[in-house]
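Q: My labmate handed me this sequence with no annotations at all. I'd like to see what the chain might look like in three dimensions before we decide whether it's worth expressing. Could you predict it?
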Amino acid sequence: MASKSKTAICNLALSHLGVSKEIGNITTEKSASASACRRFFDDAQDEVFRDFVWPFANKYNTLGLVAENPNNDWAFSYRYPSDCRRLIKILSGVRKDSRQTLVKYEIGIDDSGKLIFTDQGEAVVKYISFVSNISFYPTDFIMALSLLLASYIAPRVTAGDPTKLGERALRNYIRSRAKAEANALNERAEDEPVEAEVIRARS
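A: Here is what I predict for the chain of 203 residues:
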């Protein structure tokens, strides 16, 4: 999978559905396949970003304060990051949070867009960001995206999908995402749980 581009991902999606005629340029081509891919690509891309904590898209950011005491429930409101696709947590100062240290928050909205309500001052968040540069996408993300896209475009490019290739693509998407999660775990070195440290010290 050497080529990394929107057109290449769309052609990979088509290949999952047994469509051999490739798209030359997803931006300009007027074929039915290109039209279907343009219709669903952005939605599928956003969904894949939201469905899993992709390590390559991890981002930390200091939130922009909107108001103090914005309502009776929370001490602060902050602007939701425009590139955030999945909010992971507000940093508490403890790397591995427990139930006691986890910072509580709630998502809301005002006339300017999405908000994050919390009692944490000078809040810093960890989240999955939207990465627009496709050359940064790892192979497992590209495969997952192509499979989900295939599930969306199947009815349009296979004359109603009588053999249910779209359903098969969706099942394979779920499997590919599970594999990506396993790969991500192998690339992390987390702190040892406090309980394990205590047990080791007693032995």
